[in-house]
Amino acid sequence: MLDKAIIGGSRKYWTWIAFLLTLAGIGTINYIRQFQYGLGLTGLSRDVTWGFYIAQFTFLVGVAASAVMLVIPYYLHNFKKYGKIVILGEFLAVSAVTMCILFIFVDLGQPMRVMNVVLHPTPGSVMFWDMVVLSGYLTLNIVIGWTTLGAERKGVPAPKWVKPLIYLSIPWAVSIHTVTAFLYAGVPGRHLWLTAIMAARFLASAFAAGPALLIILSMIVRKVSKFDPGKDAIQALGKTVAYAMSANVFFFLLEVFTAFYSGIPSHQHSLVYLFSGLDGHAKLVPWMWSAAILAFFSLFMLIYPGLREKENLLSIACVTVFISTWIDKGMGLVVGGFIPNMFERVTEYSTTLPEVLITIGIWAIGFLVLTILYKVAIAVREEEIA
Amino acid sequence: MSMDRRDFLKIIGLSTVAGGIGGAGLLELRKGTAEASSAPHGRNKGSGSTLAMVIDVRKLESPDQYKRCIDACHKAHNVPDFGNPKDEIKWIWTDDFEHTFPGAGHEYVAEEVEKKQFLLLCNQCEKPACVRVCPTQATFKRASDGIVMMDYHRCIGCRFCMAACPFGARSFNWRDPRTAPNLQNPANLNPKFPTRMKGVVEKCNFCAERLREGLEPACVEACKDTKAIVFGNLDDPKSEVREMLRTHYTIQRKPELGTNPRLFYVIGG
Amino acid sequence: MNDKGKIMAGLIIFIGIFTFPFYSNLGKASAVPEPLLNTPVIKQMPVKQCVETKEYMRANHMQMLNEWRDMLLRDGIKTYKSMSNGKEYVISLQNTCLNCHSNKKDFCDTCHKYLAVHPYCWDCHFGPKEAGV
């Protein structure tokens, strides 16, 4: 089936591929520099030890969940309208998890030793389990997506053994969020992270950001090909985004309540830093307010049916959801957790150019994977139409 | 070698059977809670000893005395000094009361205490968060004496331990430590102790390499004349550290986090 | 089936690139190095014996170094009992191995260079002081 990624590509398709390859190339060159010099090429320091890379990783784990929000209605509740779109969700998951793995990889100080995680397995470490669930989720989605699409192409029902894998992928999707949230929620002394609803927040923001991206992608697919994922499917997904984003904002406000009504200073410091600055340091303040305003704006657009039902307005709402959760769950959560540091001092963090270029490079690789997989899926669907 | 392989297969097998977040992870958790319920502030029940340190800050008066401790340590362990906070690596350093014991102070802390500098280093916790989170066991607690060690050969540089340590005791080699100005001069190098390489995390090792040769930790030795740092076996009721703890009011950094630091401070009185 | 030309051209290019290491090194074979054992400490030894036999060391020194490292650092085992001569040796790269093999350049490096392996021992550990190193 992979031949469909090469055959019949339009001029636009190849220009897009070339563009992504260029960005990936620039990223790779900068990664080689980082590999030789060390992670000192980034803006990280002994006080803020995780930054832009881990922020992308955390956010993208969420995007990978988009699939499950289609799989549950389609396979468990027989919601036929998702029949055409479910493959797009599965392939988006493949692309997102691929990026997650790459972001972890470029964040390692000794990437050549990454297999030590397998060589010295440590069940007590959340990081070990994160590796297990992420690689498992990647495999599940590749196998499920490829097999069902292959069967569809031949006009036969998907083999029986795929069904249990599809059912398994549902709790598995929940596990990737839960385990990733545990990376943060399980460490003592970082008050922004030490919260029991961290995993719930991860799930909520994931089920908002993933389907939001999927809606945008579906609209693009419809524009550039003859394959239409369906207006009803997009509208149904829009409702998912509306509910999930409401839960996401609600959960965040719960955190604000606990921190400020309890009056415990250490629980407030990170939030104060993020939204109004601490000890004269306020680099993230404009970002966080943008995220907050975009979040409420998107809620307004999503909750009122009259607005959500207009597709161009829905697409705007989805873009704002995507940007808002990207800021909040990425930089806000990861960097905010490190500020103030363990001595209640503020050391700020800002990205460097190589760091940004490497990040763009990985996004480009992710979109390359996505483009190729979608091209295959679209080609199969166009064959059916023809 | 064969032992390694067996352990490896055992854990892999267990993990595979467990499938999700079950089995092995739960076992690990249960082990933790069992320990916690039987002995909330318990001793290390394992064989051997538990090394600990009592720092009597009253006896450290001049900045020069602190500097002696810090220099002795950093020289003994070839700790690089890049001269900028972004690349900073430190095993032992000082800070004031407010930042050493966040949350412990108040508006009316005695001026003498408020202005005092405190020596900070790895707390060698009994229940170290860094060890719990490390995905490769590159950092581990040694059974024989409870020292939280680093295996620089195994560290993959994920820095999860740095996120987890509540005491900011860990540093990362953001770049090749051998390029640091202070290590360029051969006179500054301790040829008996290795440097690190870029991309690994490092921290105080309670001078495990000196203890092996029957020496005291470098910082203890450097301020021996002041008798400010007492070092010894916490499991031995007759040891000097236990004597200090018995006769003085001591505090720990962030005891509420349950890591049970093995560093105690005598701050006044 | 009119792509014969393209396929053949592709194959030739592939084989050309794939075999590059072979023809680029053709005729440049260097002599097998012989690690030198002429250090002062070894010269004074009545029986020239390493911790294990020469053959064993040649084949397994890298695994042994890994085992020593884990024994000392992780398990706190300070000495190693030789399988070949039953003697106990202090586990230390810098103070045991390199005490005899103080000629890193003529001992370690010659072979490693010949085999194009790059052990990262010396990124952290200090080699013995040698003239011209």
Explain this structure to me?
The complex is a heterotrimer of chains A (386), B (269) and C (133). By secondary structure, chain A is mostly helical. Chain A has helices at 11-37, 52-63, 66-76, 86-107, 116-119, 126-154, 162-185, 198-224, 231-262, 265-276, 285-303, 305-308, 311-338, 353-385. Helices cover 74% and strands 0% of the residues of chain A. In chain A, helix 2 (52-63) crosses helix 8 (198-224), helix 4 packs antiparallel against helix 6 (126-154) and helix 9 packs parallel to helix 13 (311-338). Chain B has a single domain, classed as 2-Layer Sandwich (Alpha-Beta Plaits), CATH 3.30.70. Chain B contains eleven helices and nine strands. Chain B has helices at 2-18, 23-38, 63-76, 97-100, 111-115, 129-133, 160-164, 181-184, 208-212, 218-222, 240-247; strands spanning 51-56, 92-96, 117-121, 139-141, 148-150, 171-172, 201-202, 229-233, 263-266. Chain C has a domain at 33-124. In chain C, strands 1-2 form a two-stranded antiparallel ribbon. Chains A and B meet through helix 5, helix 6 and helix 7 of A and helix 1, helix 2, helix 4, helix 6 and helix 7 of B.
What name goes with the CATH superfamily of chain A?
A: Formate dehydrogenase/DMSO reductase domain
Number of helices of chain A: 14
Beta-strand share of residues of chain A? under 5%
Number of domains of chain B: 1
CATH architectural name of chain A: Up-down Bundle
CATH class call of chain A: Mainly Alpha
What assembly state would you assign to the polypeptide chains in this entry?
Answer: heterotrimer
Helix fraction of chain A? over 70%
Q: From the 3D structure, determine the CATH topology of chain B.
A: Alpha-Beta Plaits
Q: Brief description of this entry?
A:
Chain A is mainly alpha-helical and 386 residues long. In chain A, 74% of the residues lie in helices and 0% in strands.
